[in-house]
């Protein structure tokens, strides 16, 4: 996908590219240079749908051009099949769960988008996040059971990917969904702090517990070198209750100076009183409460600051001053204390702009990011920054680098929110469709996810998506009848009549090849492939002529059972079977009537007419009169047409040339003899009929 | 629409079957066992266990689940080909149908929870096309007799019907009985077999003359493909078939020359499996490509035959978007436990007391 100049502020690095290693290798052990010197290279072909690669050894020059005494190694004859994109089995539950949410979202947004609104999308978003968290828990459980280092590293990497995806999705949910819900308080701050503490947990509760457990009394607690940095972190993250509790615990310490002890207690008290916004409070009312609290905090900071000018060496007092400065929203102190840009942004939001709305985030983020080395940012950082800046094009590119699931689903939800429209011009193709197709391709590489993959193509609701479904489905192996039915179901869902026809043709050919002629006719009948049905009928007829046993009855009954199938050849075979049964039952009049109907209605193929005329001889020569004079004239007309009509002759010649049918030159000669007998029989029957009538 | 409980199992589940009780006819075991078969990447048989809800009800107050899992995996083994059907011959023997045309017998060894095992005892290729390629064995059914020499009958895409005693699979007999694909099979009586075909036919066979069709039933008013068939547990003249259009057809074949048939359009797509409810046969349960199960009350409430007394209850799960391929209802417990498997890689379950199950 190409991107417009407007957002080309960075070079997209494909940091996640990895090399594929062929096992066993293509070089015979220790003969790498010899291998390369002898006109060898590697050639590959990419599978059009699943991005799988077939790799094999090839010559740099055509073999004819070089000496023939090149040594051939065993690996030269191998073809390696590799997957450039693979969906690990561990992702199946996640892929299926999120596919279900995705399909449900497309369904409800297609029918009742206005009723669903932001609240509905928020519920769907929560389901996506739940699936991500479930996957993280499942991976962490698996990680504990891993014995091998290589697998453990893979699980670790997967956990990181899912945690990154959750962090990004959660922030997207806050910016575009949660803060857009109706209510008096639409501040982004409580959501941001919840996001920060959930996705980048710090300081860890275990550390706090460890510090508390290591101290028997306040003096021991104060003596712990980790205590004051921990308290500063608590202040930065807004963990007021823990901060106040620990300050109160350390305040009685003998080593603490009297002013430090006093202000520790005071800070603990004020921390507990920090105002928290509620949904039913107006911004004005909250601001008034906040100003009072902030002024109190500023007074504390000023008081500690004046004390510090006298007690410069009191490190605890210095830490208390830092905490007070953080709590009153002093940006320089916050920036100094924050390790992550997310921390700094969170503390500024919490203490400087507690009523900030989502649209303040870009400006605040810009200011914060100036203090950080963005070159060292991870893809997660870059994606989050792009999201905060509402730069959706950049965001989607980085999201895709983290995982194609993320770019597909974020672009989808953005599309439902209507915020992707203004970015469409940046991309050469529709970004939602593009990323959904990428994910679909990835899923198609897993055998259990073929249907899921096709749904991602189809639900992109573009002609390209439907074409991808069509192109993919006709190339899938028809492993079983049930699988074929499922594939036909997908065709029906997306209105792919041409693909359904191709599948029926493939099935028809497959069954034909396997000798299942009835089933083959059934499939060719669905696509009205009269030519193929005619050929199968000819094969059935030929088998009858070859063996003399009329065994195709059950086949015809089976395919005609539905009643919807109409084909001249099938009708001919059915009538001919009825003729046989009547003849066998001794009902010669009925048999004669059926035979005449076959000939007069011209349902029989021309090459079968000589045999039908021969079948008429015993009826013409029988004891009773079967054919009237008119009937006999009809029979004679058929015989004349057989000898005179160039079309009929051509058909017979073609049938004789067909290796599938048993006619030969000698058979044609004997046919001439039988025709002579038939003519004589007709003449005698005609005479007899005149006498009788 | 009621909701099913879901347990992801990361494999395409194509067949499930409850195992009979290990002693006697009453289920006194505190744990129930069932087998699932899967296809595509993981061709496996898995033995699962779940707590018996009848016992749980008695001790409801002190029973708490440690995990949210519906069932725990106790043993698994690879299967030669996709598992297309499973039938339980006894509590420790199952028969499976494979995409490679084989019928296999597996023994189940019960021990403590970690000691259970599934082991292949015998296998035979029952279905093959004329050109030598293996044909998918689409369904199988065990003869309903309490004898050691019960037979297993199987059908396949080769249009053949095969019979073999479970104790001696090598004595297999095959007969070509249909020109299309045979999609389902059942034993209405110990001597009668019924099959459903892709061409929309139900064919009956007498086991004593296995190659001859004794009756053929077709719905002349509609063009269906049949996907599955089952027989009523006590009324052998009643059959039910599932169609490719989402209908469940109920047949009364008392008069073979003029069978009566009633259609229930309960699904939107292919009906993959159908069963009369084992403890309340006035209901037909079916599962479908449309990712739902339907419980259809086919018996009218009064003598008037009022259609309003009938009802359909649908079961599905939000987290299961793809086809429900198979299901089975445990016939041995008072609480109705239905387990199903799907293309979304899930086991689905519903447990409901018998009286609740009958409410619409």
Automatic annotation (TrEMBL), chain A:
The UniProt record lists the keyword Repeat: no
Cellular location(s): Nucleus, Nuclear pore complex
Matches recorded under InterPro entries: Nucleoporin_Nup85 (IPR011502)
Listed GO MF terms: structural constituent of nuclear pore
Key word Membrane present: yes
A GO CC term assigned to this protein in UniProt: nuclear pore outer ring
Coiled coil: none
Matches recorded under Pfam families: Nucleopor_Nup85
GO biological process: mRNA export from nucleus; positive regulation of DNA-templated transcription; protein import into nucleus
UniProt keyword annotations, A-Z: Membrane, mRNA transport, Nuclear pore complex, Nucleus, Protein transport, Translocation, Transport
Function summary: Functions as a component of the nuclear pore complex (NPC).
Subunit structure: Component of the nuclear pore complex (NPC).
Annotated family: Belongs to the nucleoporin Nup85 family.
Name of protein: Nuclear pore complex protein Nup85
UniProtKB/TrEMBL annotation, chain B:
Record's keyword annotation contains Hydrolase: no
Domain of life: Eukaryota
Localisation per UniProt entry: Nucleus
Stored InterPro entries: WD40/YVTN_repeat-like_dom_sf, WD40_repeat_dom_sf, WD40_rpt
One Pfam family here: WD40
Keywords: Nucleus, Repeat, WD repeat
Record-level GO cellular component terms: nuclear pore outer ring
Record-given protein name: WD40 repeat-like protein
Species of the source: Coemansia guatemalensis
């Amino acid at each position: 996908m190409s991107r417009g100049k407007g957002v080309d502020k960075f070079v997209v690095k494909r940091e996640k590219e990895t090399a594929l290693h062929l096992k066993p290798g293509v070089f015979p052990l220790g003969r790498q240079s010899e291998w390369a010197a002898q006109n060898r290279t590697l050639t590959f072909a990419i599978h059009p749908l699943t991005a799988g690669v077939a790799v094999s050894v090839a010559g740099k020059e055509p073999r004819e051009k070089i000496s023939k005494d090149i040594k051939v190694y065993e690996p030269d004859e191998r073809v390696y099949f590799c997957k450039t994109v693979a969906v690990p089995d561990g992702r199946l539950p996640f892929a299926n769960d999120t596919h279900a949410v995705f399909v449900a979202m497309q369904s409800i947004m297609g029918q009742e988008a206005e009723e669903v609104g932001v609240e509905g999308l928020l519920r769907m978003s929560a389901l996506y996040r739940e699936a991500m968290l479930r996957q993280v828990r499942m991976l962490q459980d698996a990680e504990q059971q891993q014995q091998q280092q290589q697998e453990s590293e893979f699980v670790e990497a997967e956990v990181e990917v899912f945690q990154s995806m959750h962090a990004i999705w959660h922030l997207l949910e806050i910016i575009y969904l949660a803060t857009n819900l109706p209510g008096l308080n639409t501040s982004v701050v409580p959501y941001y702090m919840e996001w920060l503490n959930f996705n980048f947990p710090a300081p860890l509760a275990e550390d706090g517990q460890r510090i508390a457990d290591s101290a028997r009394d306040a003096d021991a607690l104060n003596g712990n070198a980790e205590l004051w940095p921990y308290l500063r972190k608590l202040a930065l993250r807004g963990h007021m209750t823990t901060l106040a509790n620990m300050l109160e615990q350390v305040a009685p310490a003998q080593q603490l100076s009297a002013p430090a002890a006093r202000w520790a207690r005071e800070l603990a008290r004020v921390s507990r009183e920090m105002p928290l916004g509620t949904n039913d409070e107006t911004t004005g009312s909250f601001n008034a409460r906040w100003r009072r609290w902030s002024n109190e905090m500023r007074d504390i900071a000023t008081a500690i600051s004046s004390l510090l000018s006298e007690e410069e060496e009191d490190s605890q007092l210095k830490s208390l001053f830092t905490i007070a400065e953080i709590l009153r929203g002093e940006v320089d102190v916050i920036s100094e204390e924050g390790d992550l840009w997310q921390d700094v942004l969170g503390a500024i939001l919490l203490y400087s702009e507690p009523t900030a709305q989502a649209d303040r985030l870009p400006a605040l983020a810009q200011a914060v990011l100036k203090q950080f080395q963005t070159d060292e940012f991870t893809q997660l950082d870059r994606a989050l920054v792009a999201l905060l800046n509402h730069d959706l094009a950049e965001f989607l590119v980085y999201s895709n680098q983290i995982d194609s699931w993320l770019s597909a689903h974020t672009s989808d939800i953005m599309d439902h929110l209507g915020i992707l429209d203004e970015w469409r011009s940046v991309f050469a193709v529709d970004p939602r469709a593009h990323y959904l197709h990428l994910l679909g391709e990835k899923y198609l590489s897993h055998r259990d996810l073929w249907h899921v993959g096709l749904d991602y193509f189809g639900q992109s609701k573009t002609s390209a998506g439907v074409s991808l479904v069509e192109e993919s489905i006709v190339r899938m192996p028809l492993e079983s009848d049930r699988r074929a039915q499922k594939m036909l179901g997908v065709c029906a869902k997306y209105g792919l009549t041409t693909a359904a026809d191709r599948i029926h043709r493939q099935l028809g050919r497959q069954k034909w090849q396997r000798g299942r002629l009835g089933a083959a006719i059934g499939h060719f009948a669905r696509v009205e492939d009269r030519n193929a049905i005619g050929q199968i009928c000819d094969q059935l007829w030929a088998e009858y002529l070859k063996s003399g046993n009329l065994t195709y009855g059950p086949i015809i009954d089976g395919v005609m059972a539905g009643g919807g199938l109409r084909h001249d050849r099938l009708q001919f075979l059915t009538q001919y079977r009825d003729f046989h049964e009547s003849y066998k039952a001794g009902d010669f009049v009925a048999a004669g009537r059926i035979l005449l109907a076959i000939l007069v209605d011209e349902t029989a193929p021309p090459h079968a007419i000589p045999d039908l005329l021969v079948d008429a001889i015993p009826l013409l020569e029988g004891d009773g009169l079967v054919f009237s004079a008119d009937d006999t004239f009809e029979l004679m007309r058929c015989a004349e047409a057989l000898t005179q009509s160039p079309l009929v002759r051509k058909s017979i010649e073609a049938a004789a040339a067909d290796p599938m049918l048993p006619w030969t030159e000698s058979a044609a000669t004997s046919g001439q003899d039988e025709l002579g007998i038939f003519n004589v029989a007709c003449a005698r029957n005609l005479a007899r009929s005149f006498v009788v009538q | 629409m009621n909701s099913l409980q879901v347990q992801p199992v990361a494999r395409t589940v194509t067949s499930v079957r409850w195992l009979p009780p290990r002693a006697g006819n009453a289920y006194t075991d505190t744990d129930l066992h069932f087998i699932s078969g899967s296809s595509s990447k993981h061709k496996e048989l898995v033995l699962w266990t779940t707590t018996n809800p009848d016992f749980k009800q008695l001790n409801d107050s002190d029973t708490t689940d440690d995990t949210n899992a519906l069932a725990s995996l106790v043993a698994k083994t690879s299967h030669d080909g996709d598992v297309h059907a499973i039938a339980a011959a006894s509590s420790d023997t199952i028969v499976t149908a494979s995409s490679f045309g084989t019928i296999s017998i597996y023994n189940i060894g019960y021990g403590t929870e970690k000691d259970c095992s599934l082991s292949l005892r015998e296998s035979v290729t029952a279905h093959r096309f004329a050109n030598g390629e293996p044909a998918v064995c689409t369904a199988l059914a065990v003869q309903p007799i309490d004898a050691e020499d019960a037979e297993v009958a199987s059908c396949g895409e080769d249009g053949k019907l095969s019979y073999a005693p479970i104790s001696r699979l090598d004595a297999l007999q095959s007969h070509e009985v249909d020109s299309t694909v045979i999609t389902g099979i059942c034993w209405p009586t110990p001597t009668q077999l019924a099959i459903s075909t892709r061409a929309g036919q139900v064919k009956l066979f007498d086991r004593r003359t296995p190659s001859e069709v004794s009756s053929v039933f077709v719905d002349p008013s509609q063009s269906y493909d049949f996907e599955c068939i089952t027989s009523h547990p006590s009324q052998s003249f009643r059959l039910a078939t599932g169609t490719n259009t989402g209908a469940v057809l109920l047949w009364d074949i008392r008069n073979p020359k003029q069978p009566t048939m009633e259609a229930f359009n309960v699904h939107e797509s292919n009906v993959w499996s159908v069963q009369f409810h084992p403890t309340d046969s006035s209901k037909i349960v079916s599962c479908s490509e449309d990712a739902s199960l339907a419980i259809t009350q086919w018996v009218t409430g009064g003598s008037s035959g009022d259609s309003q007394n009938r009802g359909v209850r649908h079961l599905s799960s939000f987290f299961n978007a793809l086809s429900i391929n198979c299901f089975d209802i445990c016939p041995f417990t008072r609480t109705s436990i239905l387990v199903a498997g799907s293309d979304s890689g899930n086991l689905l379950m519903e447990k409901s007391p018998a009286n609740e199950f009958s409410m619409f």
